[in-house]
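Quick illustration, no need to memorize.
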Amino acid sequence: MRQRIAPKIVICVSAVLTLSANLIYASASAGSHGVSTGSGSDRVAAARNQRDRRDSYPVATAPGTDLILKVARNVDDQPLSPRLVALQDRVRSGDQSALDSFWKEIAGRGAPIIEGVPGNDRDVLVTMLWRAKEETKNVFVFRLGDVSKPMARLLDTDLWYKTFRLQKGARFIYQFAANLPDPKEWRGITRFAGALRNDPLNPLQFAERWNEFNPYEVTFFSAVELPSAEPQIWNVARSTVPAGRVQREKFTSKLLGNERPIWIYTPHGYAAGKKPYGLLVLSDGGLYVNSARVATTLDNLIAAGLIPPMVAVMVENPDRWRELSCNSAYADFLAQEIVPWARANYHATDRPEQTIIGGTSLGGLQAACVGLRHAEVFGNVLSQSGAFAWKPDSEKESEWLNRQFAASPRLPLRFSFEAGLLEGTWWWRDLVLQQPDAPPANLIDPTLLAANRNLRDTLQSKGYSVHYTEFNGNHGLFNWRGTLASHLIALVGIKPEPKISLSVREPVGRSAIPRKAVATPEVKVPPDLLKQYVGRYELDPKFAHDFVLYVSVKDGTLWVKPSNLRTRPIIAESESRFFDSEITDLHLTFVKDKKGNVTGLTLNNGQGDLLVKKMPPPVPILTGNTTFTLAGHTEAEAVAIYGSFNNWIQTGNYCARSADGWVCHVDLAPGKYKYKFLVDGVALNDPANPSTEDDGNGHMDSVIVIKPK
């Protein structure tokens, strides 16, 4: 019997339970205990580092609201949590069973602990917990509060904790990292991306997906929705609401000299013979389509008569940091290529007052820059947590865009934008000040919340129409997907958004996915059948560049390594159907032809089957001016060599078997190259070559220099 962590859809997650201090004693109280999010993940993988640049604007709490409490820093300090105070007292008194009882209770109820504040009906105490399974010198909470202040340890137990004081109704994501260097030595936090882990005690997780054709392009975060969190009702599909259509296409830009995926939404009943449709253009298209569920939001708002039917174009950004940092070329691309194309092909309006440009974080910054540059095309700017502290490298002072609007004549623009109350503190602001070469405090960028408030004030002083809101949460789609609707209504609404009563609100559908241990019998698959499944399976290169699933057998269990992600077992539900042990709503079903040969597999995470074809046996390259050898690994199915010479493509440059290993041939021009071997999807440095270099992310690559003859 295997304990399966099975996903289950939450209908309403705001009924958060609060722990009473009395619960430390044997009986349970009638209070409630807050739980949320969880799970381990991939959007912290190195492959996501580029996209994660949007999180360069860390979050915590609003200035002046005193939401974050200083935690105990040594074993003699008193915890802020009444629950932990009671536990500490019992442990000090010699009660050997107190800690075990506490952990059993948390295992059943989940974490974090949510407790009321005596005499205060506005705030709650939120206590994060970490149970040390090995020697632990420190634990840090990322994405919430001051990351440089670590958790405290409760006496000499295995319990680590950190308490925050937050307003009721907060919605946020967070992650942990343990055994890091002293924060004074960090010099930034991106280097710790691979160390981030979700809260194993929190049964809920929030998934960010950005590619509907690759279910492995997903990142999970631990998440919390406190009592009375604002309902997110507009991004939930309803069977009674007619759905529009979303198409994915490749768009080639002459201005930028590249191509990218775009998604086009057309409303139910769309017809070219009707009057022109309003137009919404959004950057970060994949996330808006697959995580923010923009199509569902538009369906619901249109059906409710809150906005007119409109067309939307969601644009992906292959080089996000460059394109969304007030990039004039990208602004021209939207105004001079995307919009004319939408008008010509999807009957979109040519009226600026019915045309919206929008985005999140850096995308919100870019949206405002596009409005400034092309108000003749876009009459409305929509920004969700815009990164308005940004400045060009040539500038010393932050908030460059604010100064541009202040110095420019008022344009025919309307604005609707927002920031989170938990975006009012840098994660690592204190870290900057601790560095030996730290800039003066007045030159450190303002928080995201402060920069948004400053831009609001500037725009209002210039006479712009501004709709500005602040949500009770931190940086991410966990909040933005719910707040998007209010901005669409503010900009092009037919009537005001109705108020939703917390007491009578309808179920809000999937808000996060809980991970619940369910005793599920694992099906025993015959070893000969498992061997048939072994091989390489490539996702459609049109939608997932160079992404291969490597399937192998180990100790009678089937394992899969999805391209650059870590290897994990897949658990048999039948002889042909399995589920991924790390992405538990993802099912893999192997497909056979009429002759019984395995030809592929399907991936399904609830959005329909995605066929992945099995690759033929690799054909080795037998000629080349440079020869590499790899000893051993004779049991591997496929070995390749890849590196800077082939743009790190893993599906070429296969090696040939030899008597005691593998031989690889490559044609290399004179120059220096970084490279690795790829053994059934696992990257290895060349054991015969001691020359290595850092790849810039803390990992080493083998290096070879080819000299001219």
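DSSP finds twelve helices and 35 strands in the chain.
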